[in-house]
Amino acid sequence: MCDLDEGSNEDSMGRDSVKRISSKCMKCKESPALLIIRVGDAFCRNCFKEYFVHKFRAMLGKNRLVFPGEKVLLAVSGGPSSSSLLFQVQEGLSHKASKKLRFVPGIVHIEEGAACGKTLEERTKIVADLKSIFSTSGFPFVIVYLEEVFSLPSSVLQSIFSLPTEKDDLYKDAVAGFMQSCHTSVKKNLCHETVAQETTLTEDHTHASLLSTHAHANETSISAFRGKFPFSPEQTEAVEKLFASMKTLTAKEEMLQTLRKHLILYTARIKGYSKVMMGDSCTRLAVKLLANICLGRGAFLAMDTGFSDPRHGDITIIRPMREYSAKEIAFYNKLFGVPSVFTAGLNTKAPEKASIQHLTESFIVKLQADFPSTVSTIYRTSEKLNPRYSQTPADDKGTETCLLCSCVLGIELRDEASAFRAISISEELSQSKKPEGGQVSSSTMEECCAENKMETLESSGCSCQSRERRNTTPDFWSLLCYSCKLVVKDMTSLDLLPEYILEEANRRQRRTQIKREIQEYLLTSEDDADTAP
Amino acid sequence: MKMAAPISIHLEFGGGAELLFDGVKTHHVTLPSQSEPWDVKQLLEWIKANLLKERPELFIQGTTVRPGILVLINDADWELMGELDYKLQDQDNIVFISTLHGG
């Protein structure tokens, strides 16, 4: 941090000298310079393109996470960064690229108009614009609407982990194997064809509901809608109610992000993708880093802003655009004609202090204008963040994860003298004075479960639970991490949460309870100490 | 004293900035003649007075553009052209791109 102060003095002096009209590209020294990136590096058009493309390849190559032939889902919101990501993948996979990229992409777009209060015409138009962009890419794509969150199964909240393996050796072997299979085909063309065949070049059935196999949708009221959209007006209303129940824009944005991520994960799982690429730029991740600290997610910074996010087990989220500043992306898109569709979000045209995320963005962007190394400094700091404790449970029975964000719980409790401890103690003290309305219903719930548990163990359980227990029992809060707790607390009623979240909450609470009851019968070699609630 | 001829400028707004201009992305404008050549600073004031439909603080901050808005003059970064002091010429193409909506 001391470095930042010294650096900024130099920066402000440096900026004055940079304001001169500099003529030549600093790399090739021949062509006239077109833009300045970072502090004072001037690039001409061709050198900039080379630099941009090279950075993308280097990012993927350096991290060695994407295996050849692997199916990768691109999460494209239509904005500049994700459109740029799509464009880079397109170029990288095209025949004329030297050393083609070797994975099999698909596209998913989460349409969030319902949360932002857009009309159906606006949403249809945006989706149509996006579809034309996606079709020209040639990759299979699917459009998922936010309303479909009400048809998700609760299994989307579970993380599936396999045994850890030596990644480096696997990668080299996979590449070697892939190259061999390409060489052994009679002509080189065959190799390209096999890859092309695997990517179905036809458009996915975007109108059919993605989740029609799990049809919770009410069949009766949606006759006119069915033809056009895979959701019903009731679901749109439910989304609107969910977001209207939150008082602060901060909580709304967090909830939207969580739901969006769940939808993307679900799409990836049912379509057989093992990786998801998100288009977060350096600027956006710097904003996210600071905003997340303010939101109470400091323990998970490495996962939220790092290159790869392994917390969901079978699906890894990667962020290949994380070294590009917003300026570089905007310039590239303008100079090389990358199509993008602007969609207004929750905080479009909102006043500066409307939400924590918005305020952080405005703070960083303003600072960046005067001190051009702000964003990259924050980025470098984030690269050095490493989780102190293991972030991914080795097996999903050992450590518990947050219901909403799938982060490891109990991190805050490992230190004796942590701020979190202080907060929870003061919370307990203030709550013990209130009349115990919540406690009464929780005890009836427990009795009910006690009766039924002899007959049914895991599934179905007690028939009354999903209808009656929407109240805020202490057990429910223990399923959430600190920041998710704050988001959910901001809601006026828990009933408005989508069904799959409540179902999974019930399931986990029943498990904890049963575990408690059979605790004494468990073999002592099992290490359960940390997870006792 | 020579009066400069009126100059026509091609303006573009992108990345969400067009929301402040009724959603219209491209504008062909003719700046009235004046004794001094037009510079970008004066252009901004002109835009604020004549084109901006709402929320001026989301586009202009003081005498310059709000941080987060990129300005391209003839497809080149305005930092290389002198930023606010660049003197406009006839048929120049000025693009304003908002980078505040990530994607």
Automatic annotation (TrEMBL), chain B:
The UniProt entry, under Pfam families, shows: Urm1
Kindly give the InterPro entries that the UniProt entry links to this protein.
Beta-grasp_dom_sf, Mopterin_synth/thiamin_S_b, Urm1
Could you tell me which Gene3D superfamilies the record lists for this protein?
3.10.20.30
Numbered residues of crosslink Glycyl lysine isopeptide (Gly-Lys) (interchain with K-? in acceptor proteins): 103
Q: What is this protein called?
A: Ubiquitin-related modifier 1
Which positions, given as ranges, span the membrane? none
Keywords from UniProt, A to Z, are: Cytoplasm, Isopeptide bond, tRNA processing, Ubl conjugation pathway
Give the family per the record.
Belongs to the URM1 family.
* Xref: SUPFAM superfamilies: MoaD/ThiS (SSF54285)
Q: Which GO terms describe its biological process?
A: protein urmylation; tRNA thio-modification; tRNA wobble uridine modification
Q: What is its main location?
A: cytoplasm
Entry's localization field: Cytoplasm
Q: Which Gene Ontology cellular-component terms appear in the entry?
A: cytosol
Where 1-thioglycine occurs, residue numbers? Answer: 103
What modifications follow translation? C-terminal thiocarboxylation occurs in 2 steps, it is first acyl-adenylated (-COAMP) via the hesA/moeB/thiF part of MOCS3, then thiocarboxylated (-COSH) via the rhodanese domain of MOCS3.
**According to its UniProt entry, what is the function of this protein?**
Acts as a sulfur carrier required for 2-thiolation of mcm(5)S(2)U at tRNA wobble positions of cytosolic tRNA(Lys), tRNA(Glu) and tRNA(Gln). Serves as sulfur donor in tRNA 2-thiolation reaction by being thiocarboxylated (-COSH) at its C-terminus by MOCS3. The sulfur is then transferred to tRNA to form 2-thiolation of mcm(5)S(2)U. Also acts as a ubiquitin-like protein (UBL) that is covalently conjugated via an isopeptide bond to lysine residues of target proteins.
Q: In which pathway does it act?
A: tRNA modification; 5-methoxycarbonylmethyl-2-thiouridine-tRNA biosynthesis
